[in-house]
Specification:
By secondary structure, this protein is of the alpha+beta class. 35% of the residues lie in helices and 24% in strands. The chain has six helices and nine strands; from the N terminus they run E-H-E-E-H-E-E-H-H-E-H-E-H-E-E. Helix 2 packs across helix 4. 31% of the residues are buried.
Amino acid sequence: MNYEFEGKNEKEAIEKAASELGLERDRFDVEIIETQKKSLFKSGYVKIRVHPVNDGSVNPPAKHSYEMEKPYKKAVVNPIAKDEFEQKLLDFISNIIEKMGYDVAVEISFREEKKVCIKLSSSSSSILIGRKGKNLDALQLLANVYAGRLGREDVRVILDTENYRVRREENLVHLAYNVADRVRSTRQSVLLEPMNPFERRLIHTTLNDIPDVETISEGEGLYKQVRVIYKGSGF
């Protein structure tokens, strides 16, 4: 089950989510779905949707909730599987990709509590990434489903190859600023390409401090679009 929360800013929304859900911050993921900048006649706010890691442990809150994704960049001490769970996970991912007909070497890129990133090394990395990372997202979804079947619903699995995740983040930040400049110049809103929740949240967060621009997610399903709006344009 997902929950929605509002706060004057992201930090307040996150704290409200953690408090009302009674969860540690690493037990839920957050998607920013709407942001309103403060103006002379309106109070600013951020609206978020919370995705608990394990719904069965959450009691429905009175209202809303949230938590920030940590960066993908992390150092790892030992890239070798440290336990049976990690080894099964590496084998599962390797077998799937090899059955797809592509060579791959898999290893642990970084670990932190309830999160593990797996690096894919392949001569077919561009295919594994796919257009806008959709193939990589699909493989990551399968990895997380498998982790759940192993009884580790509490662990978030992240897949990356050729540092795609980091490069994608950097490109999206540049895109956000460029679109904001265009919106401020033309006074016309711009609808961005469909993105996954993490990418949309990155756009919302990047533009959150620009006073005359606001963002809102539109559409249904996992891949929604972010509209960047000039405040006062009537959109």
